[in-house]
Amino acid sequence: MAEQRQAVSRPLSPHLQIYRVTITMAMSIIHRFTGMGLYAGTALVAWWLVAAATGPEAYATFQAVAGSWIGQLVLFGFTWALLHHLFGGLRYLLWDAIVATSPRSADIISWAATIAALLATVAVWFAALSMRGVL
C-alpha cells in the first residue's frame, strides 16, 4: 500500500516584521521615493518653462504660487529629492564599481550620502536666498 506522506514543517520566508531596518535599506527605499518625486517635480519645471515662454501674466502666476510658503516648501522638498537621488545614485555607482561593498563601508557611504544631500540642500537654498537678498 502507498505510504501517507507527512507535511514537512518548513520556516516561513522572512518579511518586514523580522528584518531590522538598516541605513542601506532605508536609503534604497528613499531613493525609489525620491525618484518618483522627481517625476512630479519635473511637471513644476515644465510649468516654470511654459510660464516663462507664455508671457508676463503666466510667469507672475507661477511666481505667486512658487513664492508662497507652500510653494517654497515644495521647492525645498524638490531640491532635497534631487540631491538625495544624486548622492544615492553615486552610492550605487560605487557599488557597481565594486567599491565599499562590505557592510561597514556600505553603512558609511549611506550615511555620507544622506548627510551630503542635507548639507547640499541647505547650501543651495542659502546661496539662492543670499542672491535674492533675503539673508
From TrEMBL:
The heme is bound between the two transmembrane subunits. Its main location: membrane. It comes from the Bacteria. Pfam families: Sdh_cyt. One of its GO terms (biological process) is tricarboxylic acid cycle. InterPro entries: SQR/QFR_C/D, Succ_DH_cyt_bsu_CS, Succ_DH_cytb556, SuccDH_FuR_B_TM-su. Keywords: Heme, Iron, Membrane, Metal-binding, Transmembrane, Transmembrane helix. GO terms for molecular function: electron transfer activity; metal ion binding. PROSITE patterns: SDH_CYT_1. Gene3D superfamilies: Fumarate reductase/succinate dehydrogenase, transmembrane subunit. It is a multi-pass membrane protein. Its cofactor is heme. It is found in: Membrane. The chain crosses the membrane at residues 29-49, 69-87, 108-128. GO terms for cellular component: membrane. Heme binds at residue 85. Part of an enzyme complex containing four subunits: a flavoprotein, an iron-sulfur protein, plus two membrane-anchoring proteins, SdhC and SdhD. The complex can form homotrimers. NCBIfam families: succ_dehyd_cytB. Belongs to the cytochrome b560 family. Membrane-anchoring subunit of succinate dehydrogenase (SDH). This is Succinate dehydrogenase cytochrome b556 subunit. It comes from Parvibaculum lavamentivorans (strain DS-1 / DSM 13023 / NCIMB 13966).
